[in-house]
Design a protein that fits this description.
5 helices
């Protein structure tokens, strides 16, 4: 008699090598995201001299916005590099990587949503044809995203100087 559940146990998820490869391609994609943001920050910084420094002109407001954008893009690029580093340090443990990353981020200049958005974009753009590694990268990114979002919300609810 044939087994009624012929596919039962056929897919157990990514193995250890797939997880390691998925982590590596996710970290590499995060570095590319960081490079794009750093390039944008550099481009913005290079255009600041085009705007008049008159304190009351519309151009002065444009310059202020561009200067803030430069700082924010650079801070987010740095955060993505920190996330990539912690993911590689904790291959196979995205929960710990998320907590370690959160511990290194300045709460005032970034949000979990910004980091998670770029993390998800990186997970969708791995440079590989290894399907198992791509699946692993997506799983790692989602676990990391859920954990850092929950930890961020918990940390933001604490009074300053308390907790992570």
């Amino acid at each position: 008699m044939e087994d009624e559940h012929g596919m039962e146990g056929a897919f157990t998820g990514p193995g250890p090598q797939d997880i390691a490869n998925g982590t590596a391609i996710l970290a590499s994609a995060l570095v590319r995201e960081a490079q794009a943001l750093a390039s944008a920050a550099d481009g913005l910084r290079g255009t600041l001299d085009l705007f008049v420094i008159d304190g009351n002109s519309p151009e002065a407001e444009d310059r202020r916005i561009m200067r803030e954008g430069t700082r924010e893009a650079a801070a987010l690029a740095g955060a993505l590099l920190v996330a990539a580093r912690h993911l590689l340090r904790r291959t196979g443990d995205p929960v710990s990587a998320a907590h370690e990353t959160l511990g290194r981020l300045p709460r005032g200049s970034l949000s979990a949503g910004e980091l998670v958005g770029h993390l998800r974009a990186a997970a969708l753009a791995p440079v590989t044809d290894d399907g198992a590694a791509r699946i692993a990268a997506a799983m790692i990114a989602e676990t990391f995203a859920e954990e850092i979002t929950a930890a961020w919300e918990k940390a933001m609810a604490l009074p300053a100087g308390k907790g992570t």
